[in-house]
Amino acid sequence: MTERVPVLRIGQTLLVSIQTDLDDQAVMLLQDDLAAAVVASGAHGVVIDITAVEIVDSFVGRMLATIASISRLLDAQTVVVGMRPAVAITLVELGLSLGGVRTALTLDKGLRVLERARAAAMSESGFGSPARADYGSVVRDAAADQ
After folding, report:
1. In Å, how far are 18, 34, 76, 101, 136 from 73, measured between CA atoms?
2. Among 32, 41, 84, 130, which is least packed by CB within 10 angstroms?
3. What pLDDT digit, counting tens, does each position of 59-97 carry?
């Protein structure tokens, strides 16, 4: 029986730390588990840590891209962190660009990528952080109402 990869929640981010090379069944279970976790938690970001992964094949590479696409459709950005040079080389040689998947060298940098993406999305939607609000216009509007 294939072991499931744990999906941990840290605030509005889900963390998947892959500690072993994945077989095809484990990748399919991860895809299902992660999609369910994104919906159940309402997470805005997913970090997939592949630091321990030494080997990828075309199926695993495609599934990383698929997981990112599923997460994006469920309103969560995905960042893959900890990619080894050999894994990156293999993915390129297999012709897998992982389109739409953001990458970062470390978990810390990956979390910062998600924070910046979330801040940008909030800014674009008009729900920017209060630190950026124009309080002068709020005070002027309140004074005009009196």
Report:
1. 22, 13, 7, 13, 38
2. 130
3. 888 888 888 899 999 999 999 999 999 999 999 998 887
Q: Go through 99-117 and write b for each residue having 16 or more CB atoms within 10 A of its CB, e for each that does not.
A: eebbbbeebeebbebbeee
Tokens 């509005």 appear where?
Answer: 12
